[in-house]
Design a protein that fits this description.
Beta-lactamase; about 20% strand; 3-stranded antiparallel sheet; 9 helices; about 300 residues; beta-lactamase activity; Beta-lactam_class-A; alpha+beta; globular; Beta-lactam_cat; Beta-lactam/transpept-like; 11 strands
Length: about 300
């Protein structure tokens, strides 16, 4: 077969290193590690997406395939918390209303209610458990109360077309179940957290209540591992840093969204990586990259 110049060119392009589409119109020098790290993962076959926006000015700082829809695991629980908070604001039910733990809610994984003796807890306490530990049993109990369709309608009312909570938490997913707990785009998720920080999600009371629940979050294994905060006590400013975040974790998925405030400025950010979780080294490679992104964020706001 004749090896034409065009054929050689196609082969060279196919072998060339492929990085995710990105733009960095402002302060690109602050995010060199972010672009390099996510580009390396994309070249190795991972699907990566990231969005960083200056909270004060609204300027986009990083946008790496930020419109694509990827699995986001537990991050979708933020949409549930927004619906619960909105109903509390509207007095549709009381935060002191008691919900029972049902065998239908039982699922392992994240959370502490499965290990507690208490068979019932108030709605507001369950929301706190979801914010603090992404509690799966509490999530299912709240979903049983408000209904998944209501959570979806709330997301749509907020203008989210690429971000949704698809199902309850399940130990295993069969062919008739949604393939993921939630999906989302990093552009929408970063924008959602920016709106929460500005008090624009439903209203200021609803937004601040959601932020209060999320401020209890204790998972600092990803981007936020770079901030040097105490994962069990970080609701107050520490060395000028204040963080509210939510993570999503599933096999082959690591995702985080949050608002980071520093002495100089603040950002809202979202990062999602879908990868081949074949061994611990692949997983650590992803976590190292997310920590690098965290260092870039910290340098920008501090």
């Amino acid at each position: 077969m004749v090896d034409t110049v065009a054929a050689r060119g196609r082969r060279e392009r196919s072998r060339a290193r492929r990085a995710p589409r990105h733009r960095a119109p402002v302060a690109a020098e602050n995010f060199i590690g972010t672009f390099t790290g996510l580009g390396d993962l994309a070249y190795e076959g991972a699907r990566v997406s990231a969005s960083v926006v200056d909270l004060d000015s609204g300027r986009p700082l990083v946008a790496i395939d930020d419109r694509i829809v990827l699995p986001t695991a537990g991050i979708g629980k933020v949409l549930l918390l927004i619906e619960v908070s909105a109903r509390l604001t509207q007095r549709d039910f009381s935060g002191y209303g008691i919900l029972d733990k049902s065998h239908k809610d039982a699922v392992g994984g994240r959370g502490v209610w499965q290990h507690l003796q208490a068979p019932s807890l108030p709605v507001a306490d369950l929301a706190s458990l979801v914010g603090a530990t992404s509690d799966n049993v509490a999530t299912n109990a709240l979903l049983r109360e408000v209904g998944l369709p209501a959570v979806r309608r709330r997301a749509e009312s907020l203008g989210l077309s690429r971000t949704a909570m698809l199902d309850i938490v399940r130990a295993t997913r069969g062919p008739d179940d949604a393939p993921q707990l939630s999906v989302g785009s990093t552009a929408e998720l970063a924008g959602l957290f920016g709106a929460l920080a500005r008090g624009e999600v439903v209203d200021s009371l609803t937004s601040s209540r959601v932020l209060g629940w999320l401020s209890l979050g204790s998972d600092f294994s990803m981007v936020s591992s770079a901030f040097g905060l105490d994962p069990l006590a970080h609701r107050a400013t520490d060395h000028g840093i204040l963080l509210v975040n939510k993570t999503g974790l599933d096999e082959g998925v690591r995702a985080e969204v949050g608002v980071l405030r520093g002495p100089r400025t603040a950002v809202c950010y979202s990062v999602t990586i879908q990868f081949n979780d074949a061994n611990v080294w692949s997983r650590l490679r992803v976590l190292d990259t997310m920590r690098t992104i965290g260092f870039d964020l910290l340098e920008y706001v501090h």
